[in-house]
Specification:
The chain is α/β, with parallel strands linked by helices and 373 residues long. The protein has helices spanning 10-21, 40-52, 56-63, 110-114, 146-159, 172-183, 210-226, 228-235, 237-246, 248-262, 275-288, 291-304, 331-334, 353-356, 358-369; strands at residues 2-4, 68-73, 76-83, 91-96, 123-128, 165-169, 188-193, 313-321, 338-345. The protein is built from 15 helices and 9 strands.
């Protein structure tokens, strides 16, 4: 275990500003907004803000208020935050992000978990960067799917000396957390997720509430209009990597468009996630040059067929169901596949729950894990 400090060279920051200033811009049809993808007017303004007003050093200082480490597991560098609570009976919790997220997603929730109002709800938080993402750096061999990542994270918890713990996640982090429960049942006691999906059972969809019908409608929109990125990243991530690694504007637009589509907002990203938080997350991808390696997770999942979710998960699972999540399914569709012991229909929030609704998510995590302490 090696202590790690976030320290991006001045030259890298200067290079980013130069690329933003010298960007070659595409045309856009008049009055099309976001219809064809990322809106040029918005991306121009966001790029200007990134170059002129955004303060990476302030974000870096905030990241460095947390305790960072790196270690090597299964031949791969793994970066992780290990934030211990001052409360001695705190419960260990490993939280995993997804794409296009990072450990930046957890900046507003870690303190709520380690220092809750009630010490009985305290957690020791372990927040790794997924292999291929951020400070974990690019993956160096094939096969880093959700199952292999889950096995590596279970080994990380063993290496940290935690004999019993919980797992939590959204997006890929949900798949990873479920597989931690599946592959380390003797130590992982329970799993909490804010992203869970299943197809209709063989005997049909059954009776659906208005909210469930709305959730399925959102899922249909995602598959028909919003999943093109997934097809590219799961088939030709290397081709995509050239553009996103070389063009800061390309990386900016590729991620910003998802934050507009996937958050619970009023038509602007900033109504759900602050501009600085968004740019800190994007900056992490840019400075670590992990656009391509993070996309490889999709390729590995597609080609290994190893989501690891075909068999029933007996580990107790809790679900925070946010209303604007991109994929939703009725609870009764999942009952045969998951041992669901806790389900909360949240009032607000979307795909990036830890960024959008950190207080609500932290409360639900605490409520779920009380029974396992």
């Amino acid at each position: 275990m090696t202590p790690f400090t976030v320290d991006i060279p001045d030259a890298a920051i200067a290079d980013l500003k130069r690329r933003l200033a010298e960007a070659r811009w595409p045309d856009q049809l008049p009055d099309t907004g976001w219809d064809y993808g990322a809106d040029e007017a918005y991306i121009r303004e966001l790029a200007r803000y990134w170059a002129e007003d955004y303060d990476w050093r302030a974000a870096e200082a905030e990241l460095n208020e947390l305790d960072h480490f790196t270690t090597t597991i299964d031949g791969q560098n793994i970066h992780f935050i290990h934030q211990r609570s001052p409360h001695p009976d705190a419960y260990p919790l490993i939280i995993s992000h997804g794409w296009p997220g990072s450990v930046v997603e957890f900046l507003d929730i870690i303190g709520r978990l380690t220092h809750p109002d009630d010490p009985a709800d305290a957690f020791h938080v372990i927040a790794p960067s997924l292999p291929g993402y951020g400070f974990s750096g690019p993956t160096t061999d094939r096969g880093w799917d959700a199952v292999r990542t889950a096995q590596a994270f279970a080994r990380l918890m063993e290496r940290l000396g935690y004999s019993r713990y919980g797992a939590q996640g959204g997006d890929w982090g949900s798949f990873i957390s479920q597989n931690i429960g599946r592959h380390d049942p003797d130590h992982c006691q329970a799993v909490h997720v804010n992203f869970l999906f299943a197809t209709a059972p063989d005997d049909g969809p059954g009776d659906l509430t208005e909210a469930e019908q709305a959730g399925l409608a959102r899922s249909n929109i995602y598959f028909s209009e919003g999943a093109g990125y997934m097809q590219i990243q799961s088939t030709k991530p290397q081709t995509l990597a050239y553009g996103l690694t070389d063009s800061a504007i390309g990386q900016l637009a590729w991620i910003a468009e998802k934050f507009l589509a996937w958050t619970d907002n009023d038509g602007t990203i900033e109504s759900a996630v602050s501009r600085d938080r968004l740019l800190t997350n994007i900056s992490l991808y840019w400075f670590t040059a992990t656009a391509g390696s993070s996309a490889r997770m999709y390729y590995e999942m597609m080609h290994s067929g190893a989501a690891g979710l075909t068999d029933r998960l007996d580990t107790p699972i809790g679900v925070a169901n946010f209303p604007m999540e991109i994929l939703q399914a009725p609870r009764h569709w999942m009952e045969d596949r998951y041992n669901i012991v806790h389900w909360s229909d949240m009032a607000e929030g979307g795909h990036f729950a830890a960024m959008e609704e950190p207080e609500a998510l932290a409360r639900d995590i605490a409520a779920f894990f009380r029974r396992f302490r």
